[in-house]
Amino acid sequence: MEQEKITPKRSTRFTLDEADKKILEVIQEKGDISNLELAQIVELAPSSCLLRVKNLKEYGYIDKTVTLLNEKTLGYEIQAFLTVELKNLNRTSILEFCEEAKQIPQVLEVYMTTGRGAFLLKVIAKDLQDYHEIVLDKLVKLPSVSNIETSIVINTEKRKTNIPII
Questions:
Q1: Of 3, 21, 133, which is closest to residue 63 (Cα–Cα)?
Q2: Are residues 3 and 136 in contact, defined by beta-carbon separation less than 8 angstroms?
Q3: 56-67 burial code (b ≥16 CB/10 A, e <16)
Q4: What angle do CA 147, 150, 156 make, to 5 degrees?
Q5: Cα–Cα distance measured from residue 53 to residue 61, given in angstroms and rounded to the nearest whole number
Q6: Chain centroid to CA 12: how far?
Q7: What is the pTM of this model?
Q8: Extended beta strands in the chain, E state
Q9: Which of 90, 130, 153, 161 has the highest CB neighbour number within 10 Å of its CB?
Q10: 46-58 and 18-29 helices, crossing angle to 10°
Q11: Within its chain, how far is the Cα of 33 from the centroid?
């Protein structure tokens, strides 16, 4: 379940100390950890730990807390990365494409990139027929799309969400 996102106070960042870094490392691995358990691991009083986590959120070090689900268990057998080219690369077409792509539930990630394609999308589908329908009925029909190139994931060798804390 996604928690409410706090608008960070980015203009007044603070330097992370070792306790802050340890908190960030632990909650990346175990986002549902209780404050009491976290405080014990990082060797802080629970009230101090809670305040530090609150500050890490407020200052933008913690963007949000989520639960990662298993796509295959939920019946999504296909994971693909799509390079999408637009007919015209201008502000209007880019903004329109981004808004339309964000509305497709099976599009998990949208990146604007350099290189041949303007965008890289991560898409999941129940099967090849479902993927075919997503591409034909939702993506190709967008007026700004000129070309889509697909790479279907055969196997995932590494999948991490943890950011190294240095």
A1: 3
A2: no
A3: bbebebbeeeee
A4: 155
A5: 9
A6: 25
A7: 0.82
A8: 78-86, 107-112, 119-125, 145-152
A9: 130
A10: 80
A11: 20
